Input
Amino acid sequence: MKYAFPDNFWWGSASSALQTEGAREGETTWDYWFAREPNRFHNGVGPQQTSTFYQHWKTDIQLLKQLNHNSFRTSISWARLIPDGIGEVNPDAVDFYHQVIDELNEQGITPFITLFHFDMPMAMQEIGGWENRDVVDAYARYAQICFELFGDRVLHWFTFNEPIVPVEGGYLYDFHYPNVVDFRRAATVAYHTVLAHAKAVQAYRAGHYAGEIGIVLNLTPSYPRSQNPTDVKAAHVADLMFNRSFLDPVLRGEYPADLVALLKSYDQLPSCKPEDGFLIAEGKIDLLGINFYQPRRVKCRDSAVNPQAPFMPEWFFDSYEMPGRKMNPYRGWEIYAPGIYDILINLRDNYGNPRCFISENGMGVENEQRFIENGQINDQYRIEFISEHLTWLHKGISEGCNCLGYHMWTFIDNWSWCNAYKNRYGFIQLDLETQQRTIKKSGEWFAATALNNSFEKE
Ligand code: BGP
Output
């Protein structure tokens, strides 16, 4: 069967500043943490060892073209642009981003730009990071500077990439700096991120720029083990905590009342100001980026909560390992392509069918060298992964979902937060020694799909 996509469908991939650029003025929390605890990073490889986009941006953009990308998302590094987060703008950074944005446009590749992809300037973290409202203001200033500098040539902006991840990693589950475990502080970080988002949206609207502004959320559909009301309730709470804590404010302009009531009953609400509600209402977006990697399966708890243990989302559910689930064993994530369709239908039916696109989807695989045939990685598993997800996306579109494109994570194998180069995600293989780039089979498949705006599958 042939799967054809609407005209002007966005075909491309996503990356981020810290994971690709390398060599940077302006320390981030990642540089700081790596210098102190390199053992927390896979094989002791830190954020200095990237795919060198800062040097090779021009040839990399040629490769994007070879992959027939019509769009590409990356991020601006706040710490590169404003090394101390709040002061002087670094002219070298301005030149660099001007050149990248201009080159993308010249090559017919629409730049999608994220303002914050996990990379907090260390100077901002030192004053409390997202726990401090001054950092919210500093971020709003940084966003405004970006709009003024690049807003005439960037028409698709994203305030944050996966804002729940620094909350989970940094304040609940100990996989990002500052390695705090404290739900109320986590809730404060999440809340202030929403305020920062809304301030950036406000600044964008005030500047009357030609483009649109949105956010990128990692949506994990929450599936209950069964229809038993206790399992359904567990899935509902997981959905509130991990999806709707950001989805509702950015699409509806307010938090779900039952999330607020739940946190209130456990005394975990962040402190709010009366004017915050108006600001959040102004943060409604034009375009939603959806990162989809895995579903979340839950069941009601089997055991009682230890009241002495820190308050956690898991007080309300246990994870459920569905028998027969398909896994990506390298990353430990379930592969469940219908999740993409379920996300789109939920947006269509419950959120007014917003303009959206898949902003990340992908499969990290270890030791891909074993698949080399005639000098090229034959990653048939990735082609299957993509085509399977695309068939579900296609079904969503055919049922009226407003999904405008599909971007893969990622373009060239890049450095991953804690896994460094363990799992490779790219369309293009990176030789870490020589920095040589070689297109994988999946890159060729994607290039053909983008060119034809369709693909064939049985
Ligand atoms: C997303 C992030 C990306 C990227 C990807 C792969 O959550 O937006 O930055 O890293 O996941 O995940 P990982 O690198 O952890 O394997």
Notes: The pocket of 6-O-phosphono-beta-D-galactopyranose is lined by residues 16, 19, 161-162, 165, 218, 291, 331, 360, 364, 409, 416-417, 419, 423 (CB under 6 Å). The two ends are 6 Å apart (CA to CA).
